[in-house]
Amino acid sequence: MIGRIAGRLEYRGSDHVLIDVRGVGYIVHVSDRTLAQLPAPGAAIALYTELLVREDLLQLFGFPTLLEKEWHRLLMGVQGVGAKAAMAILSTLGADGVGRAIALGDWNAVRAAPGIGPKIAQRVVLELKNKAPGLMAMAVTAPAAAVIDTGDAGDLPEVAAPAAPPQNLPAPAASAEALSALINLGYSHGDAASAVAQASGSEPEAGTPALIRAALRLLAPKG
What we know:
This protein is 46% helix and 19% strand. The chain is α+β, with helices and mostly antiparallel strands. It folds into 3 domains: 4-64, CATH 2.40.50.140; 66-138, 5' to 3' exonuclease, C-terminal subdomain (DNA polymerase, domain 1), CATH 1.10.150.20; 169-219, Orthogonal Bundle (Helicase, Ruva Protein, domain 3), CATH 1.10.8. Its main location: cytoplasm. It is found in: Cytoplasm.
């Protein structure tokens, strides 16, 4: 299994890139969002990868974070969602957006992805809703696959050391911290994830304390 590739970006296609690793070129399919974030050809890059094996085909799919890779794997586990459909959902919503939509039961957001009909969108939300809290929490610890360009095209790039998390964590890290706090207060994973997703959707730039307060207001008994 090829789980990560680090090398030089040779070219960018419409839905894939070619990465040179010590003279061997790997074609890696990526989402539109990932493609837009990548540097120009010649730069050093790294992507986490998932290898799709079929009788007549081997395909690599690339992701900038382990969180996105895990969402792609879970999406492919839903009946009717293949590798390209999972990529379409991630291209439309991003990893954080997928988690928020599923936690809120917002199948219309999933349906917005090209090629995803209402039945499949509803199935995605129904089958993965219990997975959303765990992946939202994963956002704090999952590293990116970024590299530092050494400037020497003949060498492999050096792996960047993970940065220390800032004190006022931005989304999605703030969402994961808020989710963990609510679960520690005794709320169920599902209720906590739904409240945090709704709060972060209303205040995308809110830090952890603000998200916790907003989520608690949503969880408070009505009437």
